[in-house]
Structures are given as structure tokens and as C-alpha cells.
Sequence to fold (122 residues):
Amino acid sequence: EVQLVESGGGLVQAGGSLRLSCAALVFFFDDYAISWFRQAPWKEREDVSCYSSRDDGTTYADSVKGRFTISSDNAKKTVYLQMNSLKPEDTAVYLCAATPWGYCPQYEYDYWGQGTQVTVSS
Fold:
């Protein structure tokens, strides 16, 4: 069984920062690809960032390049999304998704978290 749990969301003013965490419970693969997605009302789900442990490769959506950074702590079985210079348009539910043995970009995922709310006020 693999479960992903997101945390770190909250309310922040524009220009502020948050760090989201995606923790893998029970089991986790040594090599994997994991993405942070976000879903906001009236918008399509967006793949914000992807990380692959196979080659330490990363991808970022154009909308967050230069502001967001994805990283991993294999010992803690956790992937992070550092979000700086937040904008109101970053407001969304952020979800992590993972699949074993994947590279970035990754389009199919086996495991999904439930999401954490990020709200950026102006």
C-alpha cells in the first residue's frame, strides 16, 4: 500500500511563501516520479512541477518558473514544493501524485494524495 499525504497549505498574503510537503506512508519506491498538481475553480488541472529520482530531473510549469522549487528527502520519504513570491492566481488545491520508475515529464500516475489548500490574498 502506498499513500500520499500533503501538508503545509494555508493562507498567505501575496508575495509570501509556503512550503508544501508530500509524505509517502507505509511504502515508497526507491525510484519514482512525483508531481505537484493544482486545481482551481474554473481552471484545468495544472501540472505545476515534476521530480524524478532516477535522474534528479525536474520540470516546471511556465507559470511558476523562478518562483517554485521542487525537492526531495529520500530518508523522510517526502517531496517538497517551496513556493515563493506567491500570487493570488496561485490559489488552488495542491495535490501530489507519484508513480514508480518514472521520468519527468510524467503523464500517468498510480498514487494520488487528497490535496492541501493554498490561498493567496491580495
Q: What stands out?
A: The two ends are 41 Å apart (CA to CA). The chain has a mean pLDDT of 94.
